[in-house]
Amino acid sequence: MFYEPRNGHGLPHNPFSAIITPRPIGWISTRGPDGADNLAPYSFFNGAAYEPPQVMFATTGTKADRALGKDSLDNINETGVFCVNVVEASALEAMNASAGAYGREVDEFAHAGLTRADCTLIDCARVADAPAALECRLTQITRLPGKANHVVFGEVIGIHLRDDCLVDGIFDVTRFRPLARLGYRDYSVVEEVITLKRPGES
After folding, report:
1. pLDDT tens track for 138-173
2. Which domain holds residue 83?
3. Are 125 and 114 in contact (CB under 8 A)?
4. What are the C-alpha distances in Å from 115 to residues 98, 162, 175, 196?
5. Rounded CA gap, 29 and 75, in Å?
């Protein structure tokens, strides 16, 4: 099968996000200028650079009560900071509960039954018991082609690691089993790690 996206795929559901899998989930927490906290998962998320460490995530939707289309995006644009919380398998239901298209007055931490903690370097809440949390300072928001597509880039200026996930100095993902996004309404869990050396490495 071959198709041009501009002409449609002819399938019952769009296969695009099922092709690019698995994807890590950036559980993005923000705080508005009014002090209201927001938490939402984004699966168009990844690391972008090592030195200095940087991350990116994309938003692809709209909300009538927000200028840029999403609570997360508007908060970041107004405050210049955000936090990325890593999603573990046991947080599946809470993550999903925070994904609704709620009004800006809804506190997703409370709605999903999550405990929050203050970040250290930025004015933002984080998921208190997340395996890891990345405190980020906004570097740029880039508009992409399309009705409401934006990419947010941020420099990671502080990192929280849960102590039980550190084993002999290694951040061991098998201790918390990261949740990954697949296509459609599907998710997966990372439970097996394969370690390889690159050619020429000792």
Report:
1. 999 999 999 899 999 999 999 999 999 999 999 999
2. 22-189
3. no
4. 13, 14, 20, 37
5. 10
